[in-house]
Amino acid sequence: QVDVAAMVQLFGYVDVTDTGFIVAVLSIAFNPFFWNVVARWEHKTRALSQVFGSPHAACYCLGTAILVLNCVRSHCFTEAMKSQPKLEGWDCHWTYYSGLAISAVGTLFVISSFLALGFTGTFLGDYFGILMEEKVTSFPFSVLDNPMYWGSTAIYLGWSLMHASPAGLLLTAVVAISYTIAVLYEGPFTEEIYRRKQKGVKSK
């Protein structure tokens, strides 16, 4: 009962019909949809590799597009928070520094994931036929699966707390949902790519 009341109070601070909020939701949902559709299309047709002359060039192009879209998403997220009221009880030093700490942890996971995977490993290189020799199990993958996604979610959560923003918290939930759906699609597909690789190696 308390949780329901808290959720009702939280939603009372958020105008979900606000244009900025809707744009933020759409940008959050679009990003994983875009890169999954394009990557699977590339895996099926090798069209991007042909256009750019090599799988690596095509992967770097897609990775750059994803980075730009992520910047747009973050901008829309921030603007949506600014356009909606703060939760006064959370607008204090304790909440701000808690959010800062959560964002720092999220940033650690994102950066360490990138360093462990490299550019092509991070930006769907396996869909371009650029396969890693073996599964990465070092930090942060030794701590949790998909640390890039959950690190990014933590950054948005921390950013929302730093701004004492109920709208930000709701948008963070949308980020988490979009990544959860992305993992459900990407996980089995990527595993199948590497299963075929191992099968090919054994057949030789």
Automatic annotation (TrEMBL):
It comes from Hylia prasina. HAMAP family: PLMT. It is a multi-pass membrane protein. PANTHER family: PHOSPHATIDYLETHANOLAMINE N-METHYLTRANSFERASE. It is an enzyme of class 2 (transferase). This is Phosphatidylethanolamine N-methyltransferase. The keyword S-adenosyl-L-methionine applies. It is found in: Endoplasmic reticulum membrane. GO terms for cellular component: endoplasmic reticulum membrane. Pathway: Lipid metabolism; Phospholipid metabolism; phosphatidylcholine biosynthesis.
